[in-house]
Write a structure and sequence with these properties.
Structural class: mainly alpha
Strand order of the largest sheet: 1-2
Family: Belongs to the binding-protein-dependent transport system permease family.
CATH architecture of the largest domain: Orthogonal Bundle
Subcellular location: Cell membrane
Distance between the termini: 46 Å
CATH class of the largest domain: Mainly Alpha
Protein name: Sugar ABC transporter permease
Order of helices and strands: HEEHHHHHHHHHHH
GO cellular component, one term: plasma membrane
Strand content: under 5%
Number of domains: 2
Shape: globular
Helix content: over 70%
Number of strands: 2
Main location: membrane
């Protein structure tokens, strides 16, 4: 008994040493990454949020602590509230169209096609291309005098369109570009979800008399729900922070009618050097993004719990 207890103790000590060794290795790997994040992102983000409580206009000015004055000014100024509201509904529109288009693309890529890998690569190329370069291609297409689209309209006897002076066309092209940029990644994730659905569920639905729509509704969509939740949350967070599309396609025009909140933050911080308002707007943007993501996740989780069929435990003798 004594020898057995000694061996058990030695094995326990050995396991503890192994765990400690693994913990030290993990800490050695993660610590430099954490320090890099802290220096490159953590401290600048925190500093930017703290700027919202100071009145600081111009780098040569002395910052003055003003409590919540910048936040009050934000909600009293229609320029900021309009930019915030535009960010929310534009982000929701981009996310909705991207998810729907990505789902359709995933269904097409899941079909038995020749050279499927080539098509999947083509769909994903926009996600890894430079935004600066691709927006310049869009601007070439939309040039008022020599743009490809206006040249086609002229050849048809139509009047050319001055895209930069139209709010609706500006919003349209921002949405088109954002969807084109994000649909590839969305489609590949949903494709992975489609291929993870158990094939026996489709066989069972066919036995029950389900048609193609029935299988899509009762088998495919429920199987894709975890993937869809992840896609919607990440896409919504990204879409709420749209900036580059606005900067390079419309530059916030005409007359600020396509200006979103992140673009407004950029103007305050780097054009007007109103660092206090830029910090306040950044903090409000962060709160909105977190709130939207949490609300959608809680709603999705609640809906999933409500659709779960409760199983009654069997009584003894059954």
């Amino acid at each position: 008994m004594a020898q057995t207890a000694l061996r058990v103790r030695e094995a326990s000590v050995k396991r503890a040493k192994t765990r400690n060794k693994d913990a030290w290795i993990a800490a050695a790997i993660l610590t430099p990454m954490f320090l890099f994040w802290l220096i490159a992102s953590g401290f600048p983000t925190l500093f930017g949020f703290l700027l919202g409580f100071f009145n600081w206009i111009g780098l040569n000015d002395t910052p003055n602590f003003v409590w919540f004055d910048n936040f009050v000014s934000f909600f009293k100024n229609p320029v900021y509230t309009a930019a915030l509201w535009r960010s929310i509904w534009l982000g929701g529109l981009v996310t909705s169209v991207t998810v729907i288009a990505g789902f359709g693309a995933a269904l097409l890529m899941n079909m038995p096609l020749f050279a499927k890998g080539f098509y999947r690569t083509i769909w994903y190329i926009p996600a890894v291309t430079s935004t600066v370069a691709t927006t310049q291609v869009f601007n070439t297409l939309l040039d008022t005098n020599n743009g490809v689209i206006n040249n086609v309209l002229k050849s048809m006897g139509k009047e050319p369109i001055v895209w930069q002076y139209s709010v609706n066309w500006g919003i349209f092209w921002i949405v088109v570009y954002s969807v084109w940029k994000g649909v590839g990644g969305t489609a590949l994730i949903l494709l992975a979800g489609l291929q993870s659905v158990d094939p026996t569920l489709y066989e069972a639905s066919e036995i029950d008399g389900a048609d193609r729509w029935g299988k899509l509704r009762y088998v495919t969509l429920p199987g894709l729900k975890p993937f869809a939740t992840y896609i919607v949350i990440t896409s919504l967070i990204s879409a709420l922070q749209i900036y580059e599309q606005v900067l390079f396609i419309t530059d916030g025009g005409p007359y600020g009618q396509t200006e979103v909140l992140v673009f407004r933050i950029y103007r305050d911080g780097f054009w007007d050097f109103n660092l206090g308002m830029a910090g306040a707007s950044s903090l409000i943007m962060a709160i909105v993004v977190i709130a939207v993501a949490v609300l959608y996740f809680n709603r999705s989780s609640k809906a999933e719990r409500q659709t779960t069929i409760p199983v009654k435990p069997l009584k003894r003798g059954q």
